[in-house]
């Protein structure tokens, strides 16, 4: 077990970009939905399961921090174009998903809209730190 207090610097980054005009409950909901896809498609982001001193087991979590950013609708649109051009693992959340009630309808709502017309309210991205930083150009850390 490591006792170092120096933070580990990862070569990769997990980031979420939220549209700045979302309500607090929407920000939390969108963030949770967006990051849920990364662990299933990018297994190296998941660490080992947890266990407390009484041997009660807990689910594994991301092995690195998730950084949350915010920006305007235009910032989100530009970030989306950059993430697509770099072919990085990504997830999107559109405004339409606030009105659906299940996974099937969520996928149908996204499928019904052409890429340039997506009403993006959130974007998650994973990849090399430099590439993710370029995708997020113009965004600011969430307060």
Q: What are the defining features of this structure?
A:
5 helices, alpha+beta, 143 residues, globular, two-stranded antiparallel ribbon, five-stranded mixed sheet
- Overall shape: it is globular
Runs in which pLDDT lies below 50 for 5 or more consecutive residues are none
**In percent terms, what proportion of residues is strand?**
15-25%
> Structural class, from helix and strand content?
alpha+beta
Multimerization state:
single chain
Kindly report how far apart the N and C termini lie. Answer: 33 Å
H/E element string? Answer: EHHEEEHEHEHE
Write down the overall mean pLDDT: 93
- Total of helices: 5
* Largest sheet strand order: 5-6-1-4-7
Task: Give me the Rg, rounded.
Answer: 16 Å
The major beta sheet can be summarized as:
5 strands, mixed
Helix content: 25-40%
Beta-strand segment tally: 7
């Amino acid at each position: 077990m490591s006792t170092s207090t120096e933070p580990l610097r990862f070569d990769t980054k997990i980031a979420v970009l939220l549209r700045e005009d979302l309500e607090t409950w929407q920000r939390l909901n969108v963030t949770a939905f967006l990051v849920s896809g990364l662990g299933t498609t990018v297994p190296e982001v998941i660490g080992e399961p947890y266990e407390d001193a009484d041997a009660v087991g807990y689910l594994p979590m991301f092995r690195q921090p998730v950084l949350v950013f915010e920006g305007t609708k235009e910032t989100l649109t530009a970030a989306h174009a950059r993430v697509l051009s770099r072919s990085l693992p990504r997830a999107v959340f559109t405004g339409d998903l606030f009105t659906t009630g299940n996974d099937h309808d969520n996928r149908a709502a996204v499928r019904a809209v052409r890429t340039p017309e997506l009403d993006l309210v959130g974007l998650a991205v994973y990849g090399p730190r430099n590439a993710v930083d370029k995708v997020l150009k113009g965004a600011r850390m969430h307060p």
